[in-house]
Amino acid sequence: MKIKMRSRVTRSSMEIFPNIPVMLFQNSLREQLIGCKSVLDIGCGDNSPLSFIDLPYVEGFDGYRPAIKKALKRKTHDKITYGNVTKLSHSFKSKSFAKGIPLE
């Protein structure tokens, strides 16, 4: 008599809990920004993780106009500046922000 074994279906933790890495990342960012009154989001794009964190003031900076248009529609930042990231010093005075964060 042959016994038929059922195959055990295994799923990765990413399939079961797909948002956990994102939540951990956001929590880490939140911890790093405790007490910050202003943050410059360098290379903000159109959907920055900083938009999901309650901060007093977040300004985005990006060099890609289509991303800026989308970000403005989504209201991801308090203000967004267009410019070349290699020339940040031309766009902002020194110490304009408590922290500057380049996220990709």
Shape: globular
Number of DSSP-assigned strands:
4
Output the strand order for the largest sheet: 3-2-1-4
Sketch the major β-sheet: 4 strands, parallel
Low-confidence blocks of residues:
none
If helices are DSSP runs of H or I spanning 4 or more residues, what is the number of helices? Answer: 4
Radius of gyration: 20 Å
Whole-number average pLDDT? 86
State the share of residues found in helices, binned by percent: 25-40%
Question: What is the terminal-to-terminal distance?
Answer: 59 Å
What are the secondary-structure elements, in order, as H or E?
A: HHEEHEHE
| Proportion of residues in extended strands | 15-25%
- Strand pairing plus helix content: what structural class? alpha/beta
